[in-house]
Amino acid sequence: MKSNSSLATPFFEALIGEKISHVWRGGGSAIFIELGSLRKSRKLNGEPGEPTGDISVMIEWSWRIEGPKSILGGSWSAERSWPKIFKKIVGESILDVQLFGALPEICILLSNGLRVTSFMTANGQPQWAILTHDVSRGSLGVKRGRLHVEI
User: Fold this and answer.
1) CA 112 – CA 93 distance, rounded (Å)
2) pLDDT tens across 42-67, in order?
3) Distance from C-alpha of 61 to C-alpha of 76, rounded to nearest angstrom
4) Are 53 and 34 in contact (CB under 8 A)?
5) Diameter of the chain measured on Cα atoms
6) Which of 85, 108, 121, 132 has the most other CB atoms within 10 Å of its CB?
7) Distances (CA, A) of 65 to 74, 93, 147, 148
8) What's this model's pTM, rounded to 2 decimal places?
9) What is the residue extent of each domain of the chain?
C-alpha cells in the first residue's frame, strides 16, 4: 500500500507547471479550476456546460484565495465578488501544490504569488479533489481523513 503522501505525488506533478485556463462556480460555493486545453461539455439535460480542462481541481467548500498579506476572497465572500477574484488567477501557472493540516487540506501556489486553499469548516471530511479525466489515473481526494484515489 502506498503512503499517504506518495498517493498525491503523480497528481501534484500533473498540476505543477500547468496554466489555469478557466475558473467556474459549481453548485453552492463549489469552485472548479480548469487547467490546460479546454473542451466543451454538456450538462445532463443536454444544455452546454462549463468548459473542462485536461485536469481540474474542485473545492466544494470552504475555499479562499490568498494574497501575500491578506485573503482576497473565498466561499464566504459576497458571491458578486467571485468573478473578479477568479480573474486574478486565470492565466497563472501552478508553481507548487502542498498539503497541510492533520486532515489533508490543499494549497496551490501560483506564479503571481497568490494561493488557492481549501479549508473545511463543517463536520466531515475536507471537500476537495483533483480530477484527471483519465480513467486509468483516477481522481485524488480525502476519505476517512486520508488521501484516497478513486478510479
Assistant:
1) 8
2) 999 999 999 999 999 999 989 999 99
3) 9
4) yes
5) 45
6) 108
7) 6, 15, 22, 24
8) 0.94
9) 4-52+60-150
Those residues whose C-beta lies under 8 Å from the C-beta of residue 58, and which sit 6 or more positions away, are 26, 30, 31, 32, 33, 128, 129, 130, 131
31: cell is 469552485
- According to DSSP, the β-strands at 127-131 and 115-118 are unpaired
Which residue is associated with the grid cell 459549481? 26
Q: Which residue has the cell 480573474?
A: 87
Helix, strand or coil for residue 141?
Answer: strand
* Strand-by-strand arrangement of the 20-25 sheet: 20-25, 31-35, 55-61, 127-131, 139-143, 146-150
Cα 72 to Cα 60, 63, 103: the distances in Å are: 18, 11, 24
d(CA 127, CA 139): 13
Three-state DSSP at 10 gives: helix
